[in-house]
Amino acid sequence: MPIPLHDRPIAERIEALLALSRQHADTYCSPSASLARESYLARHPTRLLVLKCMDGRIHIPHATRTPLGIISPFRNLGGIFDLGWPYLGELVTEAVAEGIRAGHGSLLMITYHFSRGERLRGCAGFGCDAGAALTHAREIRAQAERLFGTDHQHVYPLVCGFETDSDALILHGEGEATLDIGALAPDDGESLGHRVAALCPDMPADIRRDLLPLLEGNLAHAASLRGVARQLDIEHREWVICVGRGFDFLHLPNTALIIGPYGPSLAEPIGTAADIIDANMAAGRIPDDGLMLLASTPYQAVGVDRARAELKSHFLADFASRVIQERHPWLAERMHRHTAVVHWPTRRLDLLDTGIGRPR
């Protein structure tokens, strides 16, 4: 029986993770995937932006059967965001503006997650309190309305739950109205359009048209998992701290803690991530031979854009290293630091440098 990844020596774990990134880029760049994206966007041009937790179980393209590269993800510990933070606000606003220039609206899916079978399988960022996570998602929706307007004609902010036992989406409308995909039968797909129109009567027709394939895919996906034995009670065994952006390849449950540059204080979430990994080692859930720190920044073009990405990644790696050193010196001695950039058009992750131990 093969040794689980989390039990292998740190060098093997790191190589497996980097191999996963190469596999993801190869799949993304394949002729079939490229044509699938072009075909999909020709029929469904609405920009799809998703705010979500770093939890590896929250894999929206997989759960909705959407081609890779259609959904633009924003991932952070706990799915905690604030659109008032300049960098995040600029990223979201530019994504919306790009769609507007092409004559298309945007669907902003603001997600939270929980488990119906066991509360403790919920989002650790909110203490496994699904109500608190939903409240935060609604606060982000209110921020989006202040940014883009309450008429929702160009940007539709949609709060969505993700039930991790079934991989089913729960759409939230006005008040307490919801549409639970997991509660529908497979042959209810034809009624989804009417259900969404009743739940969100102010959603523009073109955005509703382009939301339906995601719901149809999720309906089929959730139905395919019914009766299938799944490992749901997964023990926390994170051994990777990721800082920055460009981690689309990382959807392994309980492997990585991802901190996006989406708030004014990076030290607090990085420190929390180090606390979690230190506790995992102390409890024997992972070997104590090392952790991986991966700092990454995406870029679009060679030249200044790549150079700026390299500077940002080096800054993030240095900053995170110092936080870990100050909070857990013992852990810093076992830190395998990797600094990288991601060529976004191909999703290729290029390592800039690596190092072991505390920062210089």
What does this structure look like?
The protein is α/β, with parallel strands linked by helices and 360 residues long. The chain has two domains: 1-44 and 235-360, Carboxysome Shell Carbonic Anhydrase, C-terminal domain (60s Ribosomal Protein L30, Chain: A, 2-Layer Sandwich); 45-225, Beta-carbonic Anhydrase, Chain A (3-Layer(aba) Sandwich). The protein has ten helices and eleven strands. Helix 3 (60-64) links the parallel strand 1 and strand 2. It is globular, with a radius of gyration of 20 Å. This is Carboxysome Shell Carbonic Anhydrase.
Total of helices? 10
What is the radius of gyration? 20 Å
Principal-axes geometry comes out as globular
Percentage of residues in helical conformation: 40-55%
- The CA-CA distance between the termini, in Å, is 41 Å
DSSP E strands, number: 11
* CATH topology name of the largest domain: Beta-carbonic Anhydrase, Chain A
Number of domains: 2
Order of helices and strands: HHEHEHEHEEEHHEEHEHHEE
Please tell me the CATH architecture of the largest domain by its name: 3-Layer(aba) Sandwich
Protein name: Carboxysome Shell Carbonic Anhydrase
Organism: Halomonas alkalicola
Detail the topology: elements first, then pairings.
Elements: H1 10-29, H2 31-43, E1 47-53, H3 60-64, E2 71-76, H4 86-101, E3 106-114, H5 130-148, E4 155-163, E5 168-172, E6 178-180, H6 192-199, H7 205-225, E7 240-244, E8 256-259, H8 267-282, E9 291-299, H9 304-327, H10 329-332, E10 335-343, E11 348-356
Parallel strand pairs: 1-2, 1-3, 3-4, 7-8, 7-9, 9-10
Antiparallel strand pairs: 4-5, 5-6, 10-11
Helix pairs in contact: 6-7, 8-9
